[in-house]
Amino acid sequence: MNNVIPLQNSPERVSLLPIAPGVDFATALSLRRMATSTGATPAYLLAPEVSALLFYMPDQRHHMLFATLWNTGMRIGEARMLTPESFDLDGVRPFVRILSEKVRARRGRPPKDEVRLVPLT
Questions:
Q1: E strands, 1-121, where?
Q2: Measured in whole angstroms, how far is the alpha carbon of residue 22 from the centre of its chain?
Q3: Strand, helix or coil at 96?
Q4: How much of the chain, in percent, has pLDDT values that exceed 90?
Q5: 120 three-class SS
Q6: Tyr recombinase domain: from which residue to which, for each copy (predicted)?
Q7: Is 87 helix (H, G, I), strand (E, B) or coil?
């Protein structure tokens, strides 16, 4: 059973969803076309498209995972290592501690486990 809902990249379709108010979707699409026309920039989703995907996700676990990936920029492997203790929601500015998978080229040995703090705003 396939419950795939086709999403069209049209401003009219997106404007009917209760998402992304005030976003000029036509301008965002033209800017993306311009940015990806050279092939140097990978294809990416616009905020209204991500909102539409989240709107149609019935499984709350998938919804939460996808929203976390989108809002923090983390990789799936980094998300798999998250625990409730990774989130600090009590401070003035809530944030998440992400144990980075990314290995950067630098002099000397890189730290075994590099942590980056990403604000949740």
A1: 87-88, 95-100, 114-119
A2: 20
A3: strand
A4: 18
A5: coil
A6: 40-121
A7: strand
Residue 45: count of CB within 10 angstroms of its CB: 13
What's the CA gap between 12 and 25, in Å, rounded? 9
Give 1's DSSP letter. -
3-state secondary structure of 31: helix
What is the end-to-end Cα distance of the chain in Å, rounded?
37
Distance CA 30, CA 9 (A): 11
pLDDT per position as a tens digit, 31-45: 888 888 888 777 778
In angstroms, the CA 30 to CA 92 distance is 38
Helix runs in the chain, H state only: 11-15, 25-36, 47-55, 60-72, 76-80
